[in-house]
Amino acid sequence: MGDLYALDFDGVLCDSCGESSLSAVKAAKVRWPSLFDGVDSSLEDWIVDQMHIVRPVVETGYENVLLVRLLLEMKIPSVRKSSVAEGLTVQGILDNWFEIKPVIMAEWDEIRDPLIDLFGKVRDEWIDNDLAGWIGANRFYPGVPDALKFASSKLYIVTTKQSRFADALLRELAGVAIPVERIYGLGTGPKVEVLKKLQSMPENQGLALHFVEDRIATLKNVIKEPELNNWNLYLGDWGYNTQKEREEAEGFPRIHVLQLSDFNGKLK
């Protein structure tokens, strides 16, 4: 018997909020150049600061681009096109993003896939032009690189990040080589389906199954699937979640709220 750990990437292994926020600002300038005509560096800095606060609502990277524009519309009435921006607060975004997102996408006439492509393209260009700068905008959580390097458990990455970016950061920043076939990124299907696939693989039979996430919504999706009853579920309290979400997690017998030091110890 051994252990298999399926690990989310952003908010569990890597604090990528600085990089994703800066990439989102770059992408928003490409997508809506006229909106940023009068935007100075201090306003950009304010947007990036707010992005750290609203980060818990992001499920997939392209949503960062929408949040940048929404924060801009909240701040500058003259560029406002969304009906929800007036009077909206950062707390309002945290509380209501699930309802806000479809409204602004419709009002801005945006489609998910082109925004995903744009966000990836902006990151690729940043990496090509300034790899050190891109890597430096990310950081692994304390102790995580060593925990990954010396893990006695079988590790998989299950993330909504595009696989190539997760792989680059693991290699270049953490100094960890996880086989690419064990990195399930954006486009490999919903996380619940990836977990079903992992547990059905012949080579994983007999292993104790563990899934570590920082989004309670994802863990609740796992609980809804009877097929996934054998997974031990963990919410990383150091990741992109709120106090309210951590308290909610305590109400689910299957979800263990995990601290970073305990997580690093489990992998080793």
Structural notes for this entry:
It is a single chain. The protein has helices spanning 17-31, 41-54, 63-75, 90-107, 112-129, 131-136, 144-149, 163-174, 191-200, 216-223, 243-250, 260-267, and strands at 3-7, 14-15, 139-140, 154-158, 183-184, 208-213, 231-236, 255-258. With 268 residues, the chain is of the alpha/beta class. The protein folds into 2 domains: 3-15 and 139-267, 3-Layer(aba) Sandwich (Rossmann fold); 17-132, no CATH class. The strands form 2 sheets. A 6-stranded parallel sheet has the order 5-4-1-6-7-8, with helices on both faces. A two-stranded antiparallel ribbon has the order 2-3. Strand 7 (231-236), helix 11 and strand 8 form a beta-alpha-beta unit. The longest helix has 18 residues, at 90-107. The mean pLDDT is 97.
List the helices and strands and how they pair.
Layout: E1 3-7, E2 14-15, H1 17-31, H2 41-54, H3 63-75, H4 90-107, H5 112-129, H6 131-136, E3 139-140, H7 144-149, E4 154-158, H8 163-174, E5 183-184, H9 191-200, E6 208-213, H10 216-223, E7 231-236, H11 243-250, E8 255-258, H12 260-267
Parallel strand pairs: 1-4, 1-6, 4-5, 6-7, 7-8
Antiparallel strand pairs: 2-3
